[in-house]
Amino acid sequence: MLDLTQGQFVKHVVTHPFEGFEDLRWKKAGSMKIATGIVVLLFIQQLAYSRMYGFQYYSDYDKIFNIVPYIFRSFGLFLLYVVCNWAMCTLFDGEGSMKNIYIVTAYSLIPYIVGYLVGTVLSHFLIQEEYIFIQLFEIIGTAWSVVLFISAMKAVHQFSFPRTLCLIALTLVAIVAVMFLLVLLLTLFQQVIIFIFTIYTELSYRLRV
Amino acid sequence: MRENNKEKGDDMSGFKKLIAAAGAGLIMTSVCAASVSASESYDPYSYDRWGDAVASQVGYTAEKSIDGQLINGLYEKVESMEGFDYDEESWKNLLNFKEPSDIYISADDLIYLVDKGNARILVTDLDFNLVNYLDKFNYNGEELTLKNPEGVFVDQYTGYIYICDTENARVIKCDTEGNVDRIFEKPTTELYSQELTFNPRKVLVDKAGNVYVVVRSVTKGAVMYDMNGEFMGFYGANRVEQTAEIIMNAFWNTIATDEQRSHSVRSIPIGFTNFDLDDDGFIYTVTESSEVKTDTVKKLNPRGANILASTVGDEVSFGDISPAYYSIYTKESQLTDIDIGPNGEMNILDFAHGRIFQYDKMANLMFVLGGTGDQLGTFRSVSALESHDNKIYVLDSRKNCITIFERTAFGEIVTEATNLYNEGYYAESYEPWLNVIKYDGNYRRAYIGIGNALLNSEQYKEAMKYFRISISRSRYNKAYEGYRDELMQKYFTPVLIIIIVLAIVISVLKKLNKNGTITFPWQRKGGV
Questions:
Q1: Is residue A30's pLDDT more than 90?
Q2: Where exactly are the structural domains of chain A?
């Protein structure tokens, strides 16, 4: 039963929200390569959503382009979630390893990415009054992903449903905490660098005189 | 700047040329770096879709500036006055302007200038020949003089001159000889709080003969008199800006007792500073305060309600979009005077930056002129402006002169195009708008104009192109809708036929496949 290749398992997982991840865990059929590919797709989707949307919908300030926010919104946030979730699950006796969390989180993002990509393509063919159709795809994709995501967390850690929700909430808190610390660290390093630079300038002036 | 680069470019290597060209392009797009026309003493700019300033052509160019000595006949007039002594300071002052505060051009083409510091009204023709000199007024045998007057208005129907005698707390209505017909003073009714002072700053009279007076200390709007001088009430008060603080106060007031309420701070709107009448009899007001953003410019109907918001939408802003930076501090626009041109253009004077903003009647920015400085076309302390025909007269109370801006060729084309466009003649405005782009590729309204002309003549694809350049999403949407319908009409039948044929072929093939008559190549491969 379920003699599927790794690639076929992706389809199985996405189309079977409730037992798909259990099967995946049981068969150990998750693939890091595919998961990474999905995260790359997420990055592309983020880019497409804000840069390649149909002109009749999209009017953001586009005189400057900075890729860093997109990297953060896809790779950064994803990795942050994986790390934080892993850290939290160790406190909760969850069974997921970092690798498994990485794989199932990525898999559960597929409907979201597809929904938004389809929306982006459609936005080139529809007019403003028909935005509801685009929204439909985006909402369905997101909702589907949420269901998959909860199911994935539940399966990978072998938790009960309330416990899973609790874990997700705590993970979000952890993400906020980590981001705060990162900002703090960054600012502190900035200060240190400025301090070193000031000393350097001071010395170089004195040497010159 | 551009010419310079071109000259140098001749003896440069190709690579250097490229860099120079790129550099020049950068400079052209960044406003403060270079002026497009070398003759202006400031950098003309306009705003793009995002509210960023972009380099632009000038719609008006500063032609000349006139001070008191350039007014023909003023010297002779003052000289012939009794007791004239050239060496005395007060007499010397009379030979020039001193803090001029208001300018008005009457229907019979006479310029009325309020010379505040010299307490007189000078009347000249358009070539600045002195026509009339009003400093003494005869009120039933009594002689009146002015004290720091700040406003003047001429009723085009009766010919009477209305003068705001500011420090004397009265408005004088007189004829051209200086014979006073009526004096408007502080109303004595309870409606006008008697603790308030009465310092009239600006005055105007509508078609019905009602007199409106802007009083410095009154925030409820203009003080309004009927034609017999009876106080009728206040007209066109500003709204209070909805800041968080005011909303909180309103909330507390609803639950407070009367006792508490009497101690709380009352929210009072900021009174408007200046106004003007357009040809249709609507009154436009400006509010100078840099603190508020609501109701800075209003167009009032006879009831005193703002109809500008309903005709052009609430999201319009006036003055500089982003505050200008002066070395270390920022300055918000302070709109101090407004003048309505013959086609409904609003000329708005910004005291903070010494700039004149011209908007069309739909409140779209047309031109920005002026700036701070000492050269011709820039100002130290602007006090009033007036437009006549294709000229704009701006008064500077520190430089004591009138600066005259004359519309350029570019300005003419833009005005023509804008007027046609606003009247709804989209197709007719197409050519002028194309010309506008030839002068100034940054002029966003031109692209919208062209786009709309094309849209109206059902050239959807072209229209889409122009709307895309001008970044106007909803208009692009409309053009795209038309374009898509066009495509659908063209290709719907063939596409439908192809789909039906394909469906039939596929179903037939599938049936044959089931029967075993044919096998598909992939089945052959997989079957092995």
A1: no
A2: 6-175
Q: Which of A61, A63, A128 sits opposite B477 (nearest CB)?
A: A128
Within a domain: residue B414? no
Contact criterion met (CB < 8 Å) for A63 and B480: no
Token pair 């017909």 is found at B181
Q: The pTM is what?
A: 0.80
- Tell me whether residue B146 is in a domain: yes
User: Could you give the ipTM of this predicted complex?
Assistant: 0.81
Residues of A in contact with B482 (CB under 8 A): none
Q: Note the pLDDT tens digit of each residue in A69-79.
A: 999 999 999 99
| Residues B302, B401 within the same domain | yes
Arithmetic mean of pLDDT, B431-452: 93
In sequence order, what are the residues at sequence separation of 6 or more whose Cβ sits closer than 8 angstroms to the Cβ of residue B287?
B238, B270, B271, B272, B273, B295, B296, B297, B335
pLDDT value for B315: 67
* pLDDT tens-digit series, residues B496-522: 999 999 999 999 998 888 888 888 777
In a domain, B138, yes or no: yes
Q: Compute the C-alpha angle B341/B42/B35, nearest 5°.
A: 110
The domain boundary residue, chosen from B51, B79, B96: B96
Does one domain contain both B118 and B211? yes
Q: How far apart are CA A202 and CA B431, in angstroms?
A: 64
Q: Are B203 and B151 in contact (CB under 8 A)?
A: yes
Residues B448 and B343 in one domain: no
Q: How far is CA B360 from the centre of its chain?
A: 7
Tell me, yes or no, whether B305 lies in a domain: yes
Q: Say if B480 is an interface residue toward chain A (CB within 8 Å).
A: yes
* Residues B376 and B389 placed together within one structural domain of the fold: yes
* Nearest of A143, A142, A126 to residue A134 by alpha carbon: A126
Q: Decide if A57 and B473 are in contact by the 8 Å CB cutoff.
A: yes
Domain that residue B461 falls in: 426-527
The proportion of chain A whose per-residue pLDDT surpasses 90, expressed as a percent, equals 74
The pair of structure tokens assigned to A116 is 């938004």
pLDDT digits over B317-374, tens only? 888 887 666 656 778 889 999 999 988 899 999 998 899 999 998 888 999 999 888 8
- Provide the domain count of chain B: 5
Query: Which chain B residues touch A122 with a CB distance below 8 Å?
Result: none
pLDDT of the residue at B324? 65
pLDDT in tens, B184-219: 999 988 888 888 899 999 999 998 889 999 998 888
In DSSP notation, B424-485 reads T-HHHHHHHHHHHHHH-TT-HHHHHHHHHHHHHTT-HHHHHHHHHHTT-HHHHHHHHHHHHH
Query: Would you call A191 exposed, middle or buried from its count of C-beta atoms within 10 A (0-12, 13-18, 19+)?
Result: exposed
Other CB atoms closer than 10 Å to residue B58's CB: what's the count?
25
| B348 CB neighbour count, 10 Å cutoff | 26
Q: Which residues of A touch B52 (CB under 8 A)?
A: 63
